[in-house]
Specification:
alpha+beta; 1 helix
């Protein structure tokens, strides 16, 4: 009888230990610091901003046009910035909001010739992007010199160059109308040549 009780007791104890091991195993196998993995964050949409054109506007300005797309499709209603490069840094000049074609345009009048680019700053769903840089030259009116008799010279270049000795006395002094002085008449840089 005692032998049967001992066998039953051992079998019960073995079953209880096995059950406890199964119940505790998942808890023991998990590190104390384990947490639920975070939800997957969707990647931002890749955008592309480009310079469409930068045509002359009036006598001194340009009209740069920028375009914003994602996957080749235009993005409407987003602000893009026209930036200039000065002292090695890019800084915003002005901005505009894209139309249904993803395009917008601004008017800019460079005080000096320099590089420009378009920039999209990005938003909660879209990545930022910048266009390739483009160079805009300072534009002048095209009137280079005014002779003393009132005659005017437009678009003076090295091909139609004249020296002071070739200009009759009644046409002197010659007013230099822009700072470029393509004929190099104003030696003392006072705004008048051949004086």
């Amino acid at each position: 009888m005692n032998q049967r009780v001992r066998s039953t007791t051992k079998a019960f104890a073995a079953s209880a230990v096995a059950a406890l091991a199964i119940a505790v195993a998942p808890v023991i196998s998990q590190p104390a610091h384990a947490t639920t993995p975070p939800a997957t964050v969707s990647a931002k949409v890749i955008t592309k901003v480009i310079k469409v054109s930068a045509k002359p506007y009036g006598t001194r300005s340009y009209r740069p046009v920028g375009k914003l797309t994602a996957g080749g499709n235009p993005i409407k209603g987003k602000r893009i910035h026209l930036q200039k490069k000065a002292s090695g840094r890019w800084m915003s000049v002005t901005s505009c909001v894209t139309n249904r074609y993803g395009k917008c345009a601004v008017i800019v009048t460079p005080k000096v010739s320099r590089y420009y680019r378009w920039k999209f700053a990005g938003d909660a769903n879209r990545r930022a992007d910048v266009s390739a840089s483009f160079y805009l030259k300072k534009r002048v009116s095209g009137l280079d010199y005014t002779y003393a008799n009132g005659e005017q010279v437009f678009n003076a270049t090295s091909t139609n160059d004249r020296d002071c000795g070739e200009i009759p006395g009644y046409k002197k002094p010659v007013r230099v109308n822009n700072s470029s002085d393509p004929w190099r008449l104003d030696a003392d840089n006072d705004g008048y040549g051949c004086d």
